[in-house]
Amino acid sequence: MIKTITKDFSKHFEINNVICETDREIFVTNKDAWLDKDFWLLNMKVHYGCLDDNLKNKVMTHIIELKDKNFSEEEVNKIFIKYDHYLPRCWTGKFRGFIEVYDDINNKYEAIKEISKELNVKLENVIAFGDDLNDIDMLKSLTNSYAMKNSYDSIKAISHHVTKHDNEHQGVMRELHTILKNLK
Description:
Blueprint: H1 2-12, E1 15-21, E2 25-28, E3 45-48, H2 51-54, E4 61-66, H3 73-79, E5 86-90, E6 98-103, H4 108-119, E7 128-130, H5 136-141, E8 145-147, H6 153-158, E9 161-162, H7 171-183
Parallel strand pairs: 2-3, 7-8, 8-9
Antiparallel strand pairs: 1-2, 1-4, 4-6, 5-6
């Protein structure tokens, strides 16, 4: 499906890069546009080149970077009408032009429920942080949910807490430090 969506996008927009990620590998179509310092952990195997040649495994991240940062979000959304359960998330700020493709059935909250069950951890003991539309179910459903200070007002409204600092100023780390300090 990733290859199909990417090909469909290329009919409507000029693509600068496509980045896909599994738990151990990263697939990048444009090595010159690769932003490794901004995204992924070290020690991941990186594959450069055409997705048709490299991508064989199911991925958990699919990001399309458009050349034109002033694209129409409405046009992006129109492409996804024909793809059941796949939605675009248009990034903002310094990452404007990046479109994250995600599966609306397998959301973060469902993943947290599965992992919690597997690890025998009660959901009320899970702390979650989020800042965008793909975090809504998780933030709304978990009692220890934190919207980032720089998130949308609508995200803050459905979260149980809001961090004192934003993503750019170690908001998650600082909030966790406060939470753990108060547990003592």
